[in-house]
Fold this sequence. Notes:
By secondary structure, the chain is an alpha+beta fold. It contains 14 helices and 30 strands.
Amino acid sequence: MAEKVITIANSITVGELADTLNLPVTTLVGELFKNGVAATINQRIDFETAQIIVDELDLDVEIQKKQQSEASSERSVHNLSDKAVERPPIVAVMGHVDHGKTSLLDSILDTKTVDGEAGGITQHISAYQTDRGDRKITLLDTPGHEAFAALRQHGATLTDVVVIVVAADDGVKPQTVEAIRFARSANAKMVVAINKIDKETANPQLVKTQLATEYDMNPEEWGGDTVMVEVSAKTGQGIDKLLDMVLLVADMEELKADIDTPAEGLVIESHMEQGRGSVVSLLVEHGELKPGQLMVAGTAYGKVRTLHDYKGRAIKIAGPSTPLTVTGFKELPQFGDNFTIAKTEKEARQLTEKKRQEREKDAASTNVTGADMLKMISQKHESQDFKVIVKADVQGSLTSVIDSLKLVDTGGEVTLRVIGSGVGNISENDIRLAADEKTVVYGFNVELPPAVKRLASRDKVQVRIFKIIYELLDDARSSMGDLLAPEVVEKEIGKLTIKGVFRTLKDSVIAGGEVTEGKVMANVIARVIRDKENIAEVEVTSVQRQQQEAKEVFEGEMCGLSLKTNKKLLIEEGDKLEFFTRELVSRSIS
């Protein structure tokens, strides 16, 4: 057992750790530097890194992590009052890309949302509301491409019911499984919409079998508890039944909300818009939001200037389960931030400052992580950097793009570094930063103003704009692949047995022999093998057959060779020569 046990939180500065361990700061800084980290006394390292450093220094010390209080959870739980009223269910539509989530919503809402999406793929979380009889249902459309995992998880945590869309002609796919996992982790009820049953190749029974046998989701008609509805977004078949079943599942949850309370809810998306400033999509969970109220969301606050419903119509009040957009925030909140109402601007500033400090502390705790340290210790060499600046149209997409870029793996040879990011069009400041850092600027669903384009051209900054996320990721993968060191590939050509040595000079040998395999040619490399041991490498400068210069000599033929060496080499009769070429082959990231 260790002589000393110390307890630290999730992170600690280098100076604090040195004091705790009763060591000179220079000792810790030196150990970090030996492993490739140029740390300062005030730089924070995480718990795992502290453990690694203690192990590397062979200290008789045990480090334990301080337990976090349960009360420090990001999201507070609202306790319903006895005056709580019934609210519309919040339903997320999730599933694999191209399985028809947005088309299904279009059929429900009688719109053509999918036509406006790049590549036919949903790029954001979009919120809508529809009527079914005298009741309302709030619907969230979530992206299906694998790069939008963060957005999909966000969509699941917002919801009461998750509609898992599975194409009847394609079956369960990776994002289907991911959607099921998200829904379960969010404790949301699930309804399966088996879409595209109008297609000739549709096989809804196969989908049901897959879900039942592989994911423990047994259809009700088979005696299970999972509601599955066969639908066609194209013809409208089964849509009414799907909505009725969603309401039935929601009724079992007895969904309620308080109205006589300050409004609170979640940020769905946020972006900047010329002439309007920050435009933020919200989902109200409790209370009623009205113009003039002072809102706080994460590190942003502002007075509600306008309220609009999902169709863009101005409204005066928004109650529970209502999706809407507001203007008035002084800066952009992050998607997933909780919003609340503050009584005064002083209170709003205090709340946002507290949140900012918390986030700065969290960010600082990952300045040097245990994973970074382990990688540095194992590699002991510097990787090349591929630096990027990322600009996106909305906060949610920005997060997804950055998270996805960080997952592009080159085995440590090339490191992608995001040196700047933000929401909105590419600006002159982005170009100036990129020019200083030799950086690529990626734009996702944003524009490059003419003046900024001219500046980029003048400063030779590469700006690449995309509307489909996987095309952006493919470009980053290709660019990082270009930075990989080329692979040396050897190609065997032939073998020869030395039959005689005619002349040996300081840096060359003239010999003759029989080709035993393949062929022999000039300007290739040969290994000299003696008693199965590689004793040298030589360069073939010329080949002769019957005292005539020859381009190639094939198996079974005799030839003479002129061999160039970098030292005096005694080749003997009976030695074997193995001929090959070496090429540098560009590598790519799979």
